[in-house]
Amino acid sequence: MSKRNRSAPRKRPRQERAKATVDTILEAAAHVLVSSGYEGTTTKAVAERAGVSIGSLYQYFPSKEALVALLLERFHQRALQVLSEKLVPHPITDLEQEVRELVRVLVEFYAENPRLQRVLLEQAPRLGPLQAVQQIEARVESLVQIVLAQNLEFEHPRNLGLVVFVIIRALRSAVWATVVERPELMGTPEFVEELSALILGYLRPQGDRRRHPAPGVK
User: Fold this and answer.
1) What are the tens digits of pLDDT across the range 146-201?
2) Which pTM does this prediction carry?
3) Which domains are seen in the chain, by residue range?
4) Helix (H, G, I), strand (E, B) or coil at 109
5) If DSSP codes are grouped into helix, strand and coil, which group holds residue 9?
6) Residue-by-residue DSSP string for 57-72
């Protein structure tokens, strides 16, 4: 069985009872992943923690990779919900305040249950591209681009879509690396300030570009 298939749920629950069972299994999986680590986690241990038979677990999840994949998907869904509240199109009167608030919300979200976040993020590369996660990230990029397009003027040859792509990837890389390597920094004012400075410095290089144009740019 391929890794891609092993990381995909067997089926999605439709009835409320089935949804409740899946929620219970995922909650148990999160607990076991935190207490035992990824290598120490087994589907048997998860089933026992959830109080369901191993057969019931296998109805929905063919492997622990599938459990991690759906936990990652739900994590990104919650992140989208949190960010969507901050990315509703609106006039920006203070860019620095807006950026710091958005970064603070994002960092605080990742700081929740950091041990679980660390396990999930460490295992994400093993699972390969997850279509649901990619769709969620694309939605976040779209929201950021809409807000910036309505509030900031970008001089040519800057490409707003590329600007947003770089911002999102830079933020994601910095936050994920901090969760895995320096979790003690998550949620601290210093970390929020440094990430904010990173984004603001990238969003506002126009003045420097006018004084020192890049070669070939008039």
Assistant:
1) 888 877 765 555 788 898 999 988 998 898 899 888 988 988 899 999 999 999 98
2) 0.76
3) 3-211 (1.10.357.10)
4) helix
5) coil
6) HHHH-SSHHHHHHHHH
